[in-house]
Design brief:
By secondary structure, the chain is of the alpha/beta class. It contains 14 helices and ten strands. It has a six-stranded mixed β-sheet. The longest helix is centred in the middle third of the chain and has 17 residues. It starts with 7 loop residues before the first helix and ends with a helix.
Amino acid sequence: MEKPLVSIEEIRAAAARIAHIAVNTPLVRAEFPGLSGHGQPREIYLKAESLQPIGAFKIRGAANKILQLTPGEIARGVITYSSGNHAQGVAYAAREVGARAVIVMPSNAPEIKRAATLAMGAEIVTVGPASSDRLAKSDELVRQHGYVVIPPYDDDQIIAGQATCGLEIIESLPAVDLVLAPVSGGGLLSGIATAVKQLSPQTKVYGVEPELAGDTAESFRTGSIVTWGTELTSRTIADGLRTQSVGVRNFAHIQAYVDGIITVTESEIRAAMRAIVAATHLVPEPSGAVATAALLFHADKLPAYKTAVAVVSGGNVDPAQLAQILTEG
């Protein structure tokens, strides 16, 4: 028998469980000339996950998983494999419960994310840039040391944790017509869609992915999970969206609840970062700007809406990279 999808009861339980760790982030109204505000009939809000304690949504799923560990599991320590934001989420939540945290990170992870992970007391093991490299090393260390794995996305407790973001959107803005979220491994999109559709079935939910790492868009279109090589996915500036394939459990939820997935170009991501800063003074990392890029540049691929929410999934951007992007164009 097929495993049931995550329920709204599980999502509400996750929200209560993580309330002392994760922030109920605000919806910030964004006026984009010609699109929203300034006399336009549409309103756009940005869900500011960049304001989480670790600067990204990943704290939700990591906390929900780690807070359900037994004392014996906490004593064994936890391990994960991540390019940065999930690493920080695991390190932060592990510190809350007093567990050792080991993070397997790729060699091309942004230095700002490595430094933040170390600052939270985690140990970092560096491997090659491929997702498969991280997974293989994590498996090896689990065999050697007995660590408890905290998966980045392909896990129901992680999905339920990320889904609390969607729960907050509907509670704050019940009449929202359209919700857009970044997608790569699929934790955030699968969670948000699962919460939104159970509470507001008429609301449309779209995933957004870099064109250069569009494996989930292809998977959605073809109906089966495809894998893109790291030589392809590593091309995008959106370092948080370089996963080579969507998770199995995530894809099951995405197929059940997501209305569409579209891709955006590198120049559109950069332009969206500039637009977000100008309109709201929020600081997005490239991965956090893709949902806004879809609204700004791909309205023809989206359903009509009066009110939309784009999730700014994180703000952990290298200052030098941010300065370059804000001053170009």
